[in-house]
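Summary for the funding panel

The consortium committed to producing paired sequence-structure records for every protein in the target list. Below we show the first two records in order, beginning with the earlier of the two.
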Amino acid sequence: MPIEPSVFISSTIRDFADLRLALKWWFEERGYHVCLSECTDFEIDPSKGTIENCLEGVRSSQYVVVVVGFRPGSYYSQ
């Protein structure tokens, strides 16, 4: 059985909520597992912060979609 490809969608959440859900639907219709931080299937390690949990999602995905707008997201100093 082939492994389902996965994609992590990254953006600021509030201003791209509709676009993020539309992308999730589009990718899932094509057989991808989609990782969105606001969805219940997004695995969260409570011992890590928001950015670290998102970076784990990036590391565990084969593809990453980054949507850039005008609002700044979080800053990461490392």
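The next record, for a separate protein in the list, is shown here:
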Amino acid sequence: MSIDPAFEPPYVVLEPSRHAAPFVFNVPHAGASYPDGFLLGSRLDALTLRCSEDAFVDALFAAVV
């Protein structure tokens, strides 16, 4: 099974210039990319899929880096 190019990279790791504390912040539901192939394979419409997002949480934690 190949990964849809629209999902590349599947995740992004952002690191600070200097490590000051041993914390990892993970925001697995922050994505808002729904390629056509993904939507065609889903039983849910795009609006319903958006309800499963943690919208803007990635932006909220961006300053943590």
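Regarding this second record: The chain is about 25% helix and 0% strand. The CA atoms of residues 19 and 42 lie 40 Å apart.
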